[in-house]
Amino acid sequence: MKLSLFTLFLLLATVALARAEEGMYPISEVGGLGLADKGLKLTPEEVFNAEKTCLVDGICKVNGCTGSFVSPHGLIITNHHCAYRAIQSSSSTTNDYLRDGFYASDLGDEIPAKGYTVRITESFQDVSDQVLSAITPGMSYTERTKAIEQRQKELEKSAEKKHLGQRAEVAEMFAGKTYVLFLYTYIQDVRLVFAPPASVGNFGGEVDNWEWPRHTGDFSFMRAYVAPDGSTAEYSKDNVPYQPKRFIQVEPKGVDEGDYVMLIGYPGRTARHKTASFLSYEQDVRLPYVVDLYQWQIEKMQQAGKGDRAIALKLSSRMKGLANVEKRSRGQLKGLVRKDIVGTRSAAESELQTFINSENARREKYGDLLKDIAAVYAEMESSQHELDVQSLRSASRLMYFAFAIYDSAVERQKDDLERETPYMDRNIDLTRRRLMLAVKDYHAPTDRVILEELLRRLRAAGDKTRDLAALLPSEDSLDELYSKTSLGDPEFIQACFDKTPEQLAAMNDPALAAIIGLYPKYLELREQSKSREGKLDQLYGDLVTVKQEFLKQKFVPDANATLRLTYGHIKGYSPEDAVYKFPITTLGGAVAKATGVEPFVLPSAIIEKHSQGDFGKFMHPKLKDVPTGILYDTDTTGGNSGSPILNGEGRLVGVNFDRAFEATINDFAWNESYSRSIGVDIRYALWITGNVFGANHLLKEMGVE
């Protein structure tokens, strides 16, 4: 991996930390973290080296998750919930891979994971000056956002032209301040290799989700394929397994309490540099809205799938995603209130304001900064009905299909660089493929129930949505809307992609007609969002500058789905008085939980092997059982799902998949007393794969004899 070390990351060399375990560090910072004192036995250069192959080259991004190459033949280990969509979309009532698991005995049996891509970071460089040079004096906030977006697209398109077959992405590191161009090897042929049944991969279901102790075998194996010449290519029977520059060696001995561990991956989004006014908006408006709407949708989907496995399979992937976000949002709400995060941040901002006011020049420049940021969120709080308007085109699949088709047609009339990102030439094929996967899982009766509720909520908003009243489908028209639309037909949708907006309007499809009527409102909201984004980017850029001046230190940028490293130790915690949670769970705990009733069902083979003490080489020497889950105090968030848990020698000892319920607040604030992450112990994954399901060829491929 060749990586350019740029100004932003050099700035981070002087970061002052309250505790070393806190932080999702840009990977180039590994040399300045003093990890040898914490337990790292590799040199920093063996973890990351700008000029040579290193440990980082064995890490990849799998859609929105992380994965690790664990063999020289493109074999990837990631989470079961990360592979869930691939498992679900390949399942039927005849071949129910979710229920029964999936096992490819050889390469020829591996099945396409439709809609999946794999990315490996190849290089990055600071492009802040180039991006910010697009801003000119007198621009409105909307124009500012659009200018930055267009410059990012120009840089990405130019980079991909120079590096054929690679994928470029400009990431904002500090809002309105620093931007980095990443280049990725981009693999489009990804296949499912092995997945345990959901009774293992999702053991405990939503009851145990975000909880500890945990006994979930949340892992699966996939494989990356390329064309015979090594170039990236879509699925073909002639493609061959990808050969990574480096793969991660599996450590079948696992870890013990107190051991050093580190994670390398692609954490999603955190908001630790956001203001108290942002947190108030989250606490009072957005998070309660998400919890309420998602709980309702999940309940309706569960009712629809009860007693009909075919419907349950159609809705399972979406329902799992909703349930995960809903419980995380509940945890964040609880943490915000219980830990008074808003009050704590407000107090810190009061000190900052005093500092700003202490000098005339500083007060002149930054005096209204916090107030101006708060005004944006106050506007959003007073316009919370916008959430219902946006949900109309996302929660209802029918409206989602109609909007995506019509929006694509409108945007594709523009020059490539002026389009919204999903509809650019470089993205349109992936956008369409993912839409077609959603069409495959469409269930009209359930969707109608959801749309009817969304329409009720919009009408209940009264004056705030009066301008939409005449445009919304009436309750009486829903029978006709669903009976006469063709948007549940994949062939019809494919044909729609080739039509202009005028041709789509002339088709007189009722769902398309409904969205076409609402489309001006969605354009208005899009412009409004860009205006807010432009204003906040400028204000937050100033906030970082003055905070650095006040605190006399630099900051680690918020997570943004780019490559990061975090570290810590296998460590329990006390969530409440007189309670200590040990950091390793065992198979015996899973068997004790197994009631035979969902979600606590285990395959009989697992229970039998446990009763016989058939643990093979994967028994924990102290616990005398197969370890299932491990707990550690690294700093993680969404996107770290599937991240390798590595020991001090850089060997794989587990796969990260969750956080403790108390740690859902990590996105806003990290705390060493309760911020804990959860992973599946590699010994459990290996025992399940080889001893239980007989896929010993995969263990052999990974060098586990």
Explain what the structure shows:
This protein is an alpha+beta fold and 705 residues long. The chain folds into three domains: 7-20 and 52-256, no CATH class; 276-548, no CATH class; 569-683, no CATH class. Helix content is 43%, strand content 14%. The strands form two sheets. Strands 2, 3, 4, 5, 6, 7, 8, 9, 10, 11 and 12 form an eleven-stranded antiparallel sheet that branches. Helix 6 (141-162) packs across helix 21, helix 9 (276-305) packs antiparallel against helix 10 and helix 13 runs antiparallel to helix 21.
Largest sheet: 11 strands, antiparallel
Distance between the terminal alpha carbons, to the nearest Å?
Answer: 30 Å
* Shape label: globular
pLDDT averaged residue by residue: 94
Proportion of residues in helical segments: 40-55%
Question: What is the total domain count?
Answer: 3
Strand-pairing-aware structural class: alpha+beta
Could you tell me the number of beta strands? 19
- Percent strand equals 5-15%
- Spatial extent as radius of gyration: 25 Å
Task: Report low-confidence residues grouped into runs of 5 or more.
Answer: 2-20
Figure out the total of helices: 25
Write a concise keyword list for the protein shown above.
single chain; 705 residues; alpha+beta; 11-stranded antiparallel β-sheet; 8-stranded antiparallel β-sheet; 25 helices; 14% strand; globular; disordered N terminus
Q: Strands, helices and their partners?
A:
Layout: H1 7-11, E1 25-26, H2 44-47, E2 59-62, E3 65-69, E4 75-78, H3 80-89, H4 97-100, E5 102-103, E6 111-112, E7 118-126, H5 128-132, H6 141-162, E8 166-174, E9 178-187, E10 189-195, H7 198-201, H8 205-208, E11 220-226, E12 240-241, E13 260-265, H9 276-305, H10 309-338, H11 341-357, H12 360-366, H13 369-382, H14 385-392, H15 397-411, H16 428-440, H17 444-460, H18 478-484, H19 490-496, H20 501-506, H21 510-551, E14 564-569, E15 584-586, H22 587-593, H23 604-611, E16 627-632, E17 644-646, E18 652-659, E19 677-681, H24 682-692, H25 696-701
Antiparallel strand pairs: 1-14, 2-3, 2-7, 3-4, 4-11, 5-10, 6-10, 7-9, 8-9, 10-11, 11-12, 13-14, 13-17, 15-16, 16-19, 17-18, 18-19
